[in-house]
């Protein structure tokens, strides 16, 4: 019996070491599990945030694509829009000369080629807004502003039918311009003749 007790006593230190090692392993596992859990939670939160941003941008892009496809799908607009073409001058210089003359601007030198930005707006009003509703919006979509400028002229995106109307609209404007002495006079007469939403010049006779 005494020998057995001594054997049991001799085995106890080893047993304690096993228990301690087992407890240490369990503690390390718990710590690692906690650390892994926190890392996974962190990754999950980041993934959700990224997914939210991607979803938001995807929705915005989808909205833009839907808007664009809706415009292009309109047969009234499709008729006038074509593939981008190589640049060729389409607007006769006399068109700008009329604008300068009616506004009393200096036309000497190269000033007709260095036009103020308002002339572009007037081009939209006098020409592009005479196409079916939505055409100018589609042209702007096809020809966006990049670093403050458009890389093309809107007329480079017109189909052959669109170009035909473009030249006719320019001619219509120049015909009225040639009969006027002032810009406000021209605007009034043009609005009256083509039904554009300009304010009429009510202070003078405006014969056709």
Could you explain the architecture of this structure?
The protein is mostly helical. The protein folds into 2 domains: 2-73; 81-194, no CATH class. The protein contains 7 helices and 2 strands, in the order H-H-H-H-H-E-E-H-H. The relative contact order is 0.09.
Layout of SSEs?
Elements: H1 2-73, H2 75-78, H3 93-103, H4 118-126, H5 135-142, E1 145-146, E2 149-150, H6 160-177, H7 183-194
Antiparallel strand pairs: 1-2
Helix pairs in contact: 3-6
For the structure shown, list the relevant keywords.
7 helices; disordered N terminus
User: Which parts are unreliable, with pLDDT below 50 for 5 consecutive residues or more?
Assistant: 1-18, 49-71, 199-208
Q: State the share of residues found in helices, binned by percent.
A: 55-70%
The coarse silhouette is elongated
Order of helices and strands: HHHHHEEHH
Total helix count?
7
Beta-strand residue percentage:
under 5%
The class by helix and strand makeup works out as: mainly alpha
Total number of beta strands = 2
Largest sheet: 2 strands, antiparallel
Rg, Å, rounded: 38 Å
Question: How far do the termini sit from each other?
Answer: 134 Å
Provide a quick synopsis of the model:
This protein has helices at residues 2-73, 75-78, 93-103, 118-126, 135-142, 160-177, 183-194, and strands at residues 145-146, 149-150. The protein is mainly alpha-helical and 208 residues long.
């Amino acid at each position: 019996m005494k020998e057995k007790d001594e054997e049991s006593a001799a085995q106890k230190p080893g047993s304690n070491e096993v228990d301690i090692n087992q407890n240490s392993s369990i503690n390390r596992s718990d710590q690692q599990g906690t650390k892994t859990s926190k890392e996974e939670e962190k990754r999950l939160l980041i993934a959700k945030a990224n997914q939210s941003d991607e979803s938001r941008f995807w929705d915005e892009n989808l909205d833009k694509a839907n808007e664009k496809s809706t415009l292009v799908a309109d047969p009234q607009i499709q008729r006038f829009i074509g593939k981008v073409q190589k640049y060729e001058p389409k607007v006769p210089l006399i068109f700008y000369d009329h604008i300068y003359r009616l506004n009393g601007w200096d036309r000497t030198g190269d000033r007709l080629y260095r036009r103020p930005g308002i002339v572009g707006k007037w081009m939209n009003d006098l020409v592009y807004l005479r196409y079916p509703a939505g055409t100018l919006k589609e042209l702007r979509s096809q020809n966006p502003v990049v670093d403050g400028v458009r890389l093309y002229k809107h007329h480079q995106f017109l189909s052959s039918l669109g170009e035909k109307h473009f030249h006719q609209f320019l001619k219509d404007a120049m015909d009225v311009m040639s009969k006027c002495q002032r810009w406000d006079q021209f605007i009034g007469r043009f609005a009256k003749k083509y039904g554009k939403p300009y304010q009429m010049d009510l202070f003078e006779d405006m014969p056709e």
